[in-house]
């Protein structure tokens, strides 16, 4: 099914254009929708925090049947049926990156109107997600309580949960009858660790295949078809390349690999944190990725490509196909930057032996364990991630909801026609999360190194997979 995407509202353009590297590690994004994930390398401070490690055993113990989980050390757990909005005057501090769309202001105003005793002060964090991550780690590891609620990259929850930085939310969810089945499965899984929920899904993102509709009648259904069509159509319509991807050694490379692994039925870790990467399916997936990266229809410097390099080349008309995040759709229709206006469609990423898999991006919302107002903080989180809050974020900010039913809302569809597109919604529904682990930054580093060596032709797919297995197992054992 071809997907036509001609018009987006100004809200959608503002939001999606700001997502210069959802899930990809680009430092240039100017809004918190940029899921930039510079959390590899040295950013595993939370997982290594001594205090968090000492408390991990107690944190992971199941409470007795007649006990409520003790997650409010230092907080004022009022509990009961009394709404937090009916109590004393409270001021919450909410932290997230810059929001150029203004959606955050609308969201806060709506919440304060419904909860007149709660004031929400906004604290703007660095645009670079990696810097934000490190700043949170520094403050939370020291027991700082100045932040009550904060937005978190989808790859942070397990790390922050094990380090004991955030509140477990299950008792709130159960008390207020929140049905987590109403949300897309991938974002929910990203917020869980050790069988508990630590983050609520706020908005989501997933990889897409963009293609030149003036050259291609129907998008390729499989990766083999993409390889064949990329080679045959390279040079058509003034193009230089058949396909573009993110193959630089950074977080975006991991996301691209996860999409290949998912398409061929492989995974890095199972739910019990066992390393499962060494499988025939993973080898096949990496071999397919290597075949593309080493082909003649990609740029010679494809190993240096990130999201900005991808969208720049595609918008200049250099490629037939490109894998990127939804933000690029708005850019294709922007006459100031695009040379391919009205000639771009998008579709699900191609299928492997196990189907199509898109890498999961997006943002969650969490509560600082040291918050002095956990009940009020939960009320704000519940509002932001519930139907009313997500509708505001979708309409005012162009961010894709994590609640399925909102895609049937006429106002949401009118605000962003992309949200009325069944194929786009299916992509979000089936997005594949990266490994959920408290040491994800280390896992990402390991994968980046071995994937880069394989794509460069220095080692075979089998060697890369075996190296990933042994190194990840060693990191988990530390």
From TrEMBL:
<feature type="signal peptide">
    <location>
        <begin position="1"/>
        <end position="21"/>
    </location>
</feature>
<dbReference type="GO" id="GO:0042956">
    <property type="term" value="P:maltodextrin transmembrane transport"/>
</dbReference>
<dbReference type="InterPro" id="IPR006059">
    <property type="entry name" value="SBP"/>
</dbReference>
<dbReference type="GO" id="GO:0015768">
    <property type="term" value="P:maltose transport"/>
</dbReference>
<dbReference type="Pfam" id="PF01547">
    <property type="entry name" value="SBP_bac_1"/>
</dbReference>
<feature type="region of interest" description="Disordered">
    <location>
        <begin position="31"/>
        <end position="85"/>
    </location>
</feature>
<comment type="similarity">
    <text>Belongs to the bacterial solute-binding protein 1 family.</text>
</comment>
<dbReference type="GO" id="GO:1901982">
    <property type="term" value="F:maltose binding"/>
</dbReference>
<keyword id="KW-0813">Transport</keyword>
<dbReference type="GO" id="GO:0055052">
    <property type="term" value="C:ATP-binding cassette (ABC) transporter complex, substrate-binding subunit-containing"/>
</dbReference>
<feature type="compositionally biased region" description="Low complexity">
    <location>
        <begin position="31"/>
        <end position="47"/>
    </location>
</feature>
<feature type="compositionally biased region" description="Acidic residues">
    <location>
        <begin position="48"/>
        <end position="85"/>
    </location>
</feature>
<keyword id="KW-0732">Signal</keyword>
<protein>
    <submittedName>
        <fullName>ABC transporter substrate-binding protein</fullName>
    </submittedName>
</protein>
């Amino acid at each position: 099914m071809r997907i036509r995407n001609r018009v987006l509202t100004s809200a959608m353009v503002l939001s999606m254009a700001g997502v210069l590297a959802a899930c990809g590690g680009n430092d240039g994004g100017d809004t918190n929708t940029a899921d930039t994930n510079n959390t590899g390398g040295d950013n595993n401070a939370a997982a290594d925090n001594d205090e968090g490690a000492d408390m991990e055993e107690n944190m992971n113990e199941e409470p007795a049947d007649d006990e409520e989980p003790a997650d409010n050390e230092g907080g004022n757990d009022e509990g009961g049926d009394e709404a937090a909005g009916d109590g004393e005057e409270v001021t919450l501090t909410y932290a997230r990156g810059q929001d150029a769309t203004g959606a955050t202001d609308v969201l806060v105003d709506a919440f304060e109107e419904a909860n007149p005793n709660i004031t929400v002060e906004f604290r703007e964090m660095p645009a670079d997600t990696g810097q934000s991550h490190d700043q949170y780690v520094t403050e939370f590891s020291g027991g700082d309580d100045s932040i009550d609620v904060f937005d978190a990259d989808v790859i942070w929850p397990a790390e922050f949960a094990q380090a004991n930085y955030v509140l477990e939310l299950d008792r709130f969810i159960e008390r207020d009858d929140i049905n987590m089945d109403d949300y897309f499965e991938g974002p929910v899984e990203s917020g869980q660790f050790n069988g508990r929920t630590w983050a609520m899904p706020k908005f989501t993102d997933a990889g897409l295949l963009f293609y030149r509709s003036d050259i291609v009648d129907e998008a390729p259904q499989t990766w083999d078809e993409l390889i064949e069509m990329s080679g045959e159509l390279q040079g058509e319509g003034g193009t230089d390349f058949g396909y573009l991807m993110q193959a630089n050694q950074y977080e975006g490379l991991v996301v691209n690999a996860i999409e290949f692994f998912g398409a061929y039925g492989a995974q890095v870790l199972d739910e019990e944190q066992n390393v499962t990467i060494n499988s025939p399916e993973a080898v096949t997936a990496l071999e397919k990725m290597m075949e593309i990266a080493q082909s003649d229809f990609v740029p010679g410097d494809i190993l240096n490509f990130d999201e900005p390099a991808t969208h720049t080349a595609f918008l200049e008309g250099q490629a037939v196909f490109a894998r990127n995040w939804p933000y690029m759709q708005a850019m294709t229709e922007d006459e100031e930057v695009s040379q391919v206006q009205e000639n771009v469609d998008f579709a699900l990423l191609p299928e492997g032996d196990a189907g199509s898999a898109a890498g999961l991006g997006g943002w969650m919302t969490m509560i600082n364990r040291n918050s002095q107002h956990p009940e009020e903080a939960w009320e704000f989180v519940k509002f932001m991630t519930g139907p009313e809050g997500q509708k505001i974020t979708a309409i005012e900010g162009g961010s894709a909801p994590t609640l399925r039913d909102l895609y049937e809302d006429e106002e949401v569809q009118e605000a962003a026609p992309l949200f009325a597109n069944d194929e786009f919604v299916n992509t979000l529904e089936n997005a594949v999360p990266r490994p959920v682990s408290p040491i994800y930054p280390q896992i990402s580093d390991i994968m980046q190194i071995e994937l880069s060596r394989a794509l460069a032709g220095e080692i075979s797919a089998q060697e890369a997979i075996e190296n990933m297995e042994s190194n990840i197992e060693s990191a988990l054992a530390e």
